[in-house]
Write a structure and sequence with these properties.
With 114 residues, the chain is an all-beta fold. Helices cover 0% and strands 54% of the residues.
């Protein structure tokens, strides 16, 4: 079982930057993929980015070139560096980690003002 704790969500102006972190703890052998989903008000949850244990990444088209996902396997932590933020990036961001199952964090709020 894995527990995920997210941090870094905040209110930021359009064009600004934020860095989200998600640390995994608990009982597990190996975390495979880690990543981020987001859910905007009134919208369905969507994949933002994912990263394999070896560092291969996949991004949603809407964030390519602006967001960077990374991870520290030693610390069991995944990061999401968000730059050039837009109001449409406003959402609750959820991290996940895959071991035997997919585990989810509680979410952290990101609000981008216009």
């Amino acid at each position: 079982q894995v527990q995920l704790v997210e941090s870094g969500g905040d209110l930021v102006q359009s064009g600004g930057s934020l860095r989200l972190s998600c640390a995994a703890s608990g009982t597990f052998f190996t975390i495979n993929a880690m990543g981020w989903f987001r859910q905007a008000p009134g919208k369905q949850r969507e994949l933002v980015a994912t990263i394999s244990r070896g560092g291969s990444t996949i991004y949603a088209d809407s964030v390519k070139g602006r967001f960077t996902i990374s991870r520290d396997n030693t610390k069991n932590t995944v990061f999401l560096q968000m730059s050039s933020l837009k109001p449409e990036d406003t959402a609750v961001y959820y991290c996940y980690a895959e071991t035997t199952y997919r585990e989810w964090g509680q979410g952290t709020h990101v609000t981008v003002s216009s």
